[in-house]
Amino acid sequence: MGFGNIGVSINSALNKPTESPFITAAILKCAAIEERLSHVSPDSWEACRLKTSVAATMVALGVKLDASELLLRHGLAMAMPSAVSELFAAKLGGLAGINTAKVSISETEPSCAIGYIKKRGDLFIESEPIPRAIPVWFLPQSVRTPLTTNPLDSSFPDMLNAIDERLRVWLHSQLDKPSPMSRSQYSDFPAVAESDPIVLRAAMWNSPARLVIHAFRAMLYCSYAHSSNVLVNERGAAYSIDHEKLVFIDGTDDIAELFDAVRHSSKVLAACRQISQLTRGDIERSLSGIDWRIWKHEPAVFNSPGPAIDYFSTRLAAWKRYFPVEAIDLVA
Ligand SMILES: Nc1ncnc2c1ncn2[C@@H]1O[C@H](COP(=O)(O)OP(=O)(O)O)[C@@H](O)[C@H]1O
Ligand SMILES: [Mg+2]
Question: Which DSSP symbol is given to 21?
């Protein structure tokens, strides 16, 4: 398939409804709740309260999912053209200490491509292969999916159990997206590394490295990091790819809501705070030097750097208010 000798062309549908950015918040909330449950005795009042809040969180998510599908039918607005978004996130991710793939854009079909190529309109987005790495989809399911144990139990009312079960299955299915590539595409990732505990720990849906990736994508309001959008290399480093969909969101209420849901989780807070090391200057740098033709390539809320810099800087400023770098103690 594809372009040149080694390049791989990616056939993908844009605007898949299930890639809604708010799923990232759901994943971070689940990570926060799981962490708290692990610290309390199973029979305690606190455990009971937390388990009920799992169900409540899931119900809220279900309602939001329906609403987002409605929104999609009416057309979700992207903040910037897809090629700009890929370039921006790859650079900004690097500045936040997140591993990403190198991305380049061309107006003509790359003749000797070595990477993964998406065609968007008449532009080609090429993502450089990550050496000796594999999408986490190819690792065991226990690594890929959250909430492997049912947090509720038979002592809970049937309704809560049923809601929890249904929505956990839904969240599993969201996080667990089959890879569009075959395993043989990643032949430089040794089979033996698939059972290496260091690799498996890094690939866990709630590992520290994956939480930072989720946090980064939440700050950007990006499509989420499911099992085909995260790779792990043989040494246990996690990589975030596919940032073309930065959905426009009016205001920063989503960040306030996220904070409220994860404020008691030291693991999730630590991940979120890592993103707060970014500055407005980093955003400016990451959006500079992009050809105006790429900016104008497709209609988006922002088709030039100035307003896009303001928009993402406003999101970053809100993020920093809720997740300040210097905070060490848990917020009460
Ligand atoms: N830099 C890369 N390194 C390794 N695999 C990649 C890379 N970029 C893309 N892929 C593979 O191609 C698939 C699709 O690419 P992606 O950018 O996620 O596009 P989409 O999900 O929109 O189709 C990924 O799930 C992954 O398997
Ligand atoms: Mg993808």
Answer: T
Please indicate, yes or no, if residue 16 is contained in any of the structural domains: no
Per-residue model confidence as pLDDT tens for the chain (332 residues): 443 335 676 655 444 545 778 788 888 888 888 888 888 887 788 877 877 776 677 667 666 666 666 666 566 789 999 999 999 999 999 999 999 999 999 999 887 778 999 999 999 999 999 999 999 999 988 787 765 455 555 556 666 666 666 666 777 777 888 899 999 999 999 999 999 999 999 999 889 999 999 999 999 999 999 999 999 999 999 999 999 999 999 999 999 999 998 998 999 999 999 999 999 999 999 999 999 999 999 999 999 999 999 999 999 999 999 999 976 554 44
pTM of this prediction? 0.89
- Return the exposure string of 55-90: e unless at least 16 CB atoms fall within 10 Å of the residue's CB, then b: bebbebbbebbeebeeebeeebebbbbbbbbbbbbb
Token pair recorded at residue 281? 């200057």
Indicate the top mutation candidate among 187, 213, 242 to test ligand 1's pocket, ranked by most ligand atoms within 8 A of CB: 242
CB atoms within 10 A of CB 280: 14
The verdict on residue 329 lying in a domain is no
Domain with 143 in it: 37-322
Q: Is the CB of 227 under 6 A from ligand 1?
A: no
Q: Is 12 inside any structural domain?
A: no
Total number of domains in the chain: 1
Confirm whether 202 is domain-assigned.
yes
For ligand 1, pick from 228, 233, 239, 246 the residue to mutate: most ligand atoms within 8 Å of CB: 228
Residue owning the nearest CA to atom 20 of ligand 1: 12
